[in-house]
Amino acid sequence: MSDQNQDKELQVQESAPQSNEGAVKPSRWKRMMAKKWVFPATYMAAAAIILTLMWVYTDSGSKNLSETELGLDLSKSQTVTDSTNKPDALAVNAQAETMQWPVKDRNEVEEVLQYFDSNASSEVRQAAMIEYGDTLTPHVGVDFARNDDQPFEVVAALSGKVTRVDNDPVVGKLVEITHADGTVTIYQSLADVKVAKGVDVKQGDVIATASRSELEKELGTHVHFEVRQNGAPVNPETLIADK
């Protein structure tokens, strides 16, 4: 009897359903992440996304620089200089002018009074002083004259606009020309002035004839040439290659 009961108990235990309580099944995500190919594939996908974003950003930046910031936007009209109708415009743009002396032929005249250089020797500084009445004044220009004391043509040292024409009792007739970079050239001790205020002149144009002045009457017929930058006198010899 006891053997039969034991057999029945064994059958009941074997046929009884097994309980899954307490067992943890791995999730689908963990099972997928456990595979060896997942990490390399994820890394390559992320790298591809980053490279794509960088390419888009770089391409956008290059367009902004080339078209907008560099002024090459083809959607906007651009002015093209007509070399046939305006040849002078190309010539001016191609090569900037270099200041020249205010005479047609530098070999025709000699320097009779030089610019006062504060760094020069005492003897040179003394020679560059002007005496007028009882006053000695530093000479802030360069004066030219012919050996025979004859008049000669005075020309514009640079292209520009005439901003002053005057007749001063001390320095004589004078012409002032303002140039594109703000430099001002002044020509004094003149006669037969050929320009008027407001007109444009080109480098080398004759603007007057050398004459005399009360301030430098001992120099005879001459021209006083002066250069000013930012309102201050500058030694013309530092700006002119042909000394």
Structural account:
It is built from five helices and twelve strands. The longest helix has 32 residues, at 38-69. The N and C termini lie far apart (142 Å). By secondary structure, it is of the alpha+beta class. The protein folds into two domains: 28-69; 106-238, Glucose Permease (Domain IIA). It is elongated, with a radius of gyration of 46 Å. The strands form two sheets. Strands 1, 4, 5, 6, 7, 8, 9, 10, 11 and 12 form a ten-stranded antiparallel β-sheet that branches. It has a two-stranded antiparallel ribbon with strand order 2-3.
Number of domains: 2
CATH class of the largest domain: Mainly Beta
Low-pLDDT residue spans: 12-24, 61-84, 89-94
Proportion in helices: 25-40%
Total strand count, please? 12
- Helix/strand structural class: alpha+beta
H/E element order: HHHHEHEEEEEEEEEEE
Named CATH topology of the largest domain: Glucose Permease (Domain IIA)
- Assess the beta-strand content as a share of residues: 15-25%
Oligomer: single chain
User: Kindly, what is the distance between the CA atoms of the first and last residues, rounded to a whole number of angstroms?
Assistant: 142 Å
Shape descriptor reads elongated
